[in-house]
Amino acid sequence: MRTIVAVVFAGFVMIGPSAAATEVGVADLMTAPEVFDGEEITLTGELVGDFQRRGEAVWVQLNDDPYVTAPLHDGGAPAGGNLGVAVRFPTRVFEAAGFTAPGGYRVRGPVVRVTGEWRFHDPERGGETYLAAAFFEVIERERPITQGGDWPVFLIGLALVIAGVVPRVAKRRARRQVL
Amino acid sequence: MILRRPSAHDARLIAFFLGRVSYVVAVAGALPAAWAAIAGEWSPFASFTLMVGVFCILGALGSSVRHEHERLGWSQGMVVVALTWLLVPAIGSIPLLLSGHFGDPLDAFFDAMSGLTTTGLSVIQDLDHLAPSLNFWRHLLHFLGGQGIVLAALSLFAGGAGMTLFYGEGRDERIFPSVTSTARFIWAVSIVHLIFGVALLTGVGVIAVGLEPLRAVFHGLMIFMAGFDTGGFSPQSTSVGYYHSAAFEAATAVLMVAGAMSFGLHFALWRGRRAEVFRNLETRTILATFGVTLVLTIVGMATLGIYSDVFGLTRQSLFHTLSAHSGTGFSTVPSSEIAAWGGLAFGGIAVAMALGGMASSTAGGVKALRIGLTVKLLRDQVRQVLLPERGIVRRGYYQSGRRRLTPELAQAVMAVSLLFVAMYLIGAGVGIAYGFSLQSALFESVSAGANVGLSAGITDPSMPTLLQTTYIAEMWLGRLEFVAVFALIGFVVSAVRGK
Lengths: 179, 499
Description:
The structure holds two protein chains of two kinds. By secondary structure, chain A is an alpha+beta fold. Chain A folds into two domains: about 10-145, CATH 2.40.50.140; about 150-180. In chain A, about 20% of the residues lie in helices and about 35% in strands. In chain A, the strands form two sheets. Chain A has a five-stranded mixed β-barrel with strand order 2-3-4-7-6. Chain B has helices spanning about 10-40, 40-65, 75-90, 95-100, 105-115, 130-145, 150-155, 160-170, 180-210, 215-230, 245-260, 265-270, 275-280, 280-305, 310-325, 335-340, 345-355, 370-385, 405-435, 440-450, 465-480, 485-495, and strands at about 395-400, 400-405. Chain B has a two-stranded antiparallel sheet with strand order 1-2. Classes of the chains: A alpha+beta, B mainly alpha. The interface between A and B is large, with 63 and 69 residues.
């Protein structure tokens, strides 16, 4: 069900992916971010949080962790914390994809394969660390996640609320009547 | 020494006040429940209802054991405070556990304790897909804990319980003669900051970060609660680094400074007594220690050579030193990078964390007032030695008025400071025993004990249970500044061995 469907948007190509681009994971970047500084790399992962639209660029967090295929509340297995890095997309290229929502509680975000230059504490951007995207392809579109209510838990809770509040309200009323 | 076994009356009185606090937290818990209901997040809504139900039941049980108008003694009050700070995270962890984002109940309790004690260390999994209402609850725990959960109850019902509960939560100065008035003033300051803080962060979020307005309000609210209450949780897994904006970091820094200031200082500023602010020993101390740790961090970062521009170097050094010194724990870089800093930068941040903010603020750590008094004591001792035999050094200091530095005060200051150091070292020892480096183990232990939340990577869902329990104990002890916890231990020992 969770097979990754490769959907390549040829129209997004700004500069074709270079053969020199190294395929890395976010974990590699966390371990030794300086090693890849200035190199062309390719990252694959889910765009989560917000699309931070700032004029000429859109900043998005790209997560490369087990929750890309299945978030925890959508059947995923616990596998530690998230692993994410920032990606800075040129606005024109990003908007052409027509993403409706980033990943979050209600959406498993778009999964993309991004190629660009890894910039570790970039002096041109106040020391930010990010992937300056030159090209990306959409591996899987965003999809909604639905989580139903846990009604037995709700009913137990409601019963406890009633049991906890009613006697107190009754006691107060009784005291007022005495006064 | 003969120990007096606590009576049934003591137990009933403690249960009664715990019941009252439970009702107050039930009301607070209704907020994320309402959020979940409005947003249609039905699974979290169910778990919040269960949590509120448990608090209500505890409230009813507590209220049923005795009449309300009885005074709470010093030791009983301390026990109430210590138990409250165990009970609230225990029950408050219910929605976290049921969310499926925590591996086991201890993990959920760890995060709830971290939230309430405004620490900010987290073992949550897949935070980036967490329901907004659950994120709100995590941050609301910061707000409740930062203001003082018992203080919240105090502002509603003081009775004869005021003083002891107030001091039990690690607050040292009353702003008004009445504790209830002081509690209400603290809440008033916080609400005003809430309005301005959320507005500021929302504005910066929309204009500088490029967030959509509703999302900017959400982020603004979360970051306000974590920043002003010097907590350190964040709605996304990459902390404040998520926003990639110097303007957003600057707005956050304003809140961290406000959170690390004592409420007495807020009061002086509200009254326009600016001159007094800079006469205070605590203000001078924190400015000095912040300056020193900032220089250490900048030099250390420069030595590492990871920043090739002055702006980037200064921005990151300033933000992390402020985050550490205020006890907030926000970060703009991953914990793996913090762990790799080493040397002066690592030391500067660690020392800033250990020292902490001002007394009677939302910050943790040893606190600037104690550092200032310790330095003053040492200086007076040296001056005494240098004076002729009959010479006398006047021992006093300025803190919202001229005060005497009595031997009793000096003893208390030294004792608590040493307890903090001992706690940091014990926590580090446990970390080292599990194979972590001295540097990382000490950093993480200080972060937990000083309620900061910066991590060198040890705090993780897969961390050893004993180490996790040690950090929970450190967060609890550090937030209550030992006294209430020791009173609880004494109470239990007396119950077992007393006559």
